[in-house]
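Supplementary Methods S3. Input chains for the assembly prediction are listed below.
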Amino acid sequence: DQQVKQNSPSLSVQEGRISILNCDYTNSMFDYFLWYKKYPAEGPTFLISISSIKDKNEDGRFTVFLNKSAKHLSLHIVPSQPGDSAVYFCAADMYSGGGADGLTFGKGTHLIIQP
Amino acid sequence: DAGVTQSPTHLIKTRGQQVTLRCSPISGHKSVSWYQQVLGQGPQFIFQYYEKEERGRGNFPDRFSARQFPNYSSELNVNALLLGDSALYLCASSPRVDEQYFGPGTRLTVT
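Predicted structure tokens for the full assembly:
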């Protein structure tokens, strides 16, 4: 049973436009959420995170929104650039549990930025 | 600063064999976690070690074991390899719970 779901395996967006990647979770014990970006032949790279006490966190072109009641989060990238083409993973953690259960990842969304 | 390093980069093993994967964390990081990423899936948590002690374990059989050394480097061992163990094995180090820095991974192929 997947606790973190990314229902779009791929997403194609034109350069300069907004990219919106979505993620749903089922475990209400999750209280910390992260987005990672992965290029081929490299490990995942941390992008941005959000605690469950917030509903928005921004870092430059990246903004993560959290809707706890819907158990949904989204990553917005504005404007999208060719270097953003990668696989994006949503991950969740039980921070209050000390993180000893590790991160729970979704299957990823392959973002393709079209010139 | 050097990132997380893993060795080897690739290896091929036969069913029933044993394999050892190695990870060196970022300097100053005392926690190391291991993840398995099967093709088409997200990484799945295997172990977390902190100060040489196992702090957490994912839903993996006892064929998987790990340890952390006094210099905080870590090894992941898998015994009695199965075809289904073919995956990218990722190591992540962290200074604290919420930041995990991943290495490039070891690609294991079991034939």
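The first strand of chain B starts at residue 5 and ends at 7. Chain B has one domain: 5-110.
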